[in-house]
Amino acid sequence: MAFHLNNKWSEERLERWLVRAEKHYGGFVKGVQRKKISPKDPRPHELLYKIGMQGGDRMMFHGYAKKYAEYLAPILQSRVLDDCPTMIVEVGILKGTGLAVWADLFPKCRLIGLDIDLNFIEENMGFLEKRGAFKNTKPEIYEFDQYLDNFRYMGKILKRDRIDICIDDGTHCTPANLTTFRSIKPYLSKQFVYIIEDNPNVYLEIRKLYPSLNVENSGELTIITPNRKKLI
């Protein structure tokens, strides 16, 4: 499912590819039962254990492919054509569909997946690899509680690397989103894209707390970049 750049390359083509790639690696799943919850999660735990999780839904089900193509296209052009590595972090990986997509899109990258429960991706890794995932890049996966201050923890994981692309598809709760962003922000590269999914209100808090950053809201999607709407 590698995305090959050529003279017919366009954001529209990337948008279509993102939808196909997500479907190729399993697509939309729902009713995935939680096995682990942060002790600091303020939501009723009994209810959370009853409510199943869903994933593989960003590109087609939620319709985020257009915005992803808009913001990832400039990075894809500059990094891939110049043969530069890309540092990608995804928070909330569930079964790993997103990681498989990013590994195909950026074949030369360091790819990190963070989740409070790694059992789901570990159980699904065989399926992803049979579908052709991770031929060039093997993801690093780490346990991650979004309600904790993970600043030092991220420093140990990243070492001297800086993050170019970060996707928060974890709890979808504003307190956890803000804590995660605060932990990761010091490690973002000079030209980064930070995306928070499935939270229609978090952008308001981020705009207040970080007025120097550009924060775009598109429905339930928040896109944060350094002082400009999209990278050039």
UniProtKB/TrEMBL annotation:
InterPro entries: SAM-dependent_MTases_sf
Gene3D superfamilies found in the cross-reference section: Vaccinia Virus protein VP39
Protein name per its UniProtKB record: Uncharacterized protein
Species name: Candidatus Woesebacteria bacterium GW2011_GWB1_38_8
